[in-house]
């Protein structure tokens, strides 16, 4: 069958990607039979691997019963059970679960709930949501106002109220030791300074990715940072929102990444790995007191048609059960530790790798011109696209971003499904090794010209 002219792609793409045929476990095949190892779980989505038979079975069972029941007409078992399960995994007190279809919707829901809570408790002057730069919180206008990535946000600036930002704690760029408490304090105190500069009584919330995603490339906060952020928010009556859209669901070695520091937010959001690509699903999980305030004041002025879709929730529930049954969080921690040590060995061999970071199976490396100065590669090399394309040709899928603003920086997320084994780690490292060698050859040819 010949491929029709594309009419659903809205991006400039340098080449059309092959047509996907099938996906099983950590592998995907195109229609020509070429196999790819899904080294980034799509966009850090397919946490339990592709085509899991138990998840497909649960979805089929639900499909035979009902695929849609509008939330104002019916409650559904999958939504009820998934909400209870999610609340049981979330921090103490965060037991109210609001279902949505993706990460941006979850972030929108969180900031709107926070705002309605402020009005309900007589603090209507609070509306600013501080976030970090760089960060990614979604592309709808509310979430985009929080996203710290100017190229995405700038064209829409007149249409939204851009929110205050503080720098993300990229200690490796500032030559600071992330294991030193003073480093954590240095970056966390920027939040307090920003709150004071903005007027504390106008600040509603602070939103943070506990372990960074695409924006910072798996940035792990420096020692003491998360705890101090929590303290600062509490001191000024500001809600702390954890964006666990990418880090939630187990891939960092804990169900929620913030468990690494035992810090509880007031609201958290989750998506991507929640239903692991089997269905569009996300959730906002809020503290019961916040929800009670909003309900007492008349209820949440917000909701999406597909909220709590029974098929999506059946998929989500089966995914969470699969993670528990197969001990996938433990495996993410163990296999992630192996993969990280292998990436560090690659860094020993390739001086263009400037940094290796992350937790569990949310890992990244950054390419630089010079490791000592962390000077990025020349923008014209287009490294973030080139290396991805080379790896793709070699049958390895990785995910990249360039987010060091004006001075650019190329990082690559290595985040295979949580079912990955030591053999898969070997395959990923072999693919990266080959791809980096070919990338370097290409650069030297370009420079020779
Ligand atoms: N927050 C974070 C941390 C994310 O990584 C993403 C997606 N990359 C989003 C929000 C937005 O999610 P979605 O693309 O599902 O709207």
Task: Explain what the structure shows.
The chain is built from 14 helices and 16 strands. The chain is of the alpha/beta class and 449 residues long. The chain has two domains: 154 residues, Aspartate Aminotransferase, domain 1, CATH 3.90.1150.10; 272 residues, Aspartate Aminotransferase, domain 2, CATH 3.40.640.10. A hairpin with a 4-residue loop joins strand 2 and strand 3. The longest helix has 27 residues. It starts with 19 loop residues before the first strand and ends with a helix. The mean pLDDT is 95. The protein binds 4'-deoxy-4'-aminopyridoxal-5'-phosphate (PMP). 4'-deoxy-4'-aminopyridoxal-5'-phosphate binds next to helix 4.
Q: So what's the CATH class of the largest domain?
A: Alpha Beta
User: DSSP strand (E) fraction?
Assistant: 15-25%
Q: Which percent range fits the helix content?
A: 25-40%
Largest sheet: number of strands, sense, barrel closure? 7 strands, mixed
InterPro entries: Aminotrans_3, Aminotrans_3_PPA_site, PyrdxlP-dep_Trfase, PyrdxlP-dep_Trfase_major, PyrdxlP-dep_Trfase_small
Keywords: Aminotransferase, Pyridoxal phosphate, Transferase
GO molecular function, one term: transaminase activity
Organism: Roseibium salinum
